[in-house]
Design a protein that fits this description.
Number of helices: 8
Order of helices and strands: HHHHHHHH
Structural class: mainly alpha
Number of strands: 0
Shape: elongated
Radius of gyration: 25 Å
Oligomer: single chain
């Protein structure tokens, strides 16, 4: 990494980083930031066009993965795409990225299955799933797999009678009438 900077920035780099203590400080900060080789390569690629060598803080920012590095849209664009696709038949859905499709599948868009629920209810559900998927993506884990459903923003209360009917229905399905 230091050789790459020295080659790219020659006289702008050398006065500071011929000092071994400066290099030690950089290495310490990079380790503390939890960067791995792939991150450092990403940082070197991103700052290749910079006229001046970056500070260690700037370089760490260059090293961090961004959604665009993976061809993933930003949250607002992904959410709008998911809302557009919510009522389309699956054979007509064309997703910009699997992450958008997976996050959209974890949202209850409406009670009846096709109408779009209010943004105040669907956006938080989508954000919850999106944040889980972003963590998976940046950790190098598979995106596929269940995204735990978020709790709804409001919980509807029901009467004892409605609850009893629901419990009876579940018992019938499980064949445990009087368990």
């Amino acid at each position: 990494m230091f050789r790459t900077f020295a080659r790219r920035h020659s006289y702008r780099w050398r006065p500071t980083f011929e000092d071994d203590k400066a290099r030690q400080l950089w290495l310490h900060d990079l380790r503390r930031a939890g960067l791995v080789d792939a991150d450092v390569r990403r940082g070197l690629d991103k700052c290749a066009q910079e006229e001046w060598p970056p500070t260690v803080g700037e370089f760490i920012k260059f090293c961090r993965a961004e959604l665009a590095d993976y061809g993933v849209p930003e949250f607002d664009d992904a959410y709008l795409e998911a809302r557009r696709m919510a009522c389309r038949p699956s054979h007509l859905q064309q997703w910009s990225h699997d992450m958008v499709r997976i996050a959209a599948a974890s949202v209850v868009w409406s009670e009846d299955g096709c109408g779009l629920g209010p943004d105040s209810e669907t956006r938080p559900q989508f954000r919850y799933a999106w944040e889980i998927l972003v963590r998976r993506l940046f950790a190098g884990k598979p995106l596929e797999g269940a995204v735990p459903l978020a709790l709804p923003p409001t919980i509807r209360r029901c009467t004892r009678e409605v609850a009893a009917k629901g419990i009876a229905s579940v018992r019938r399905v499980l064949n445990t009438e009087d368990a």
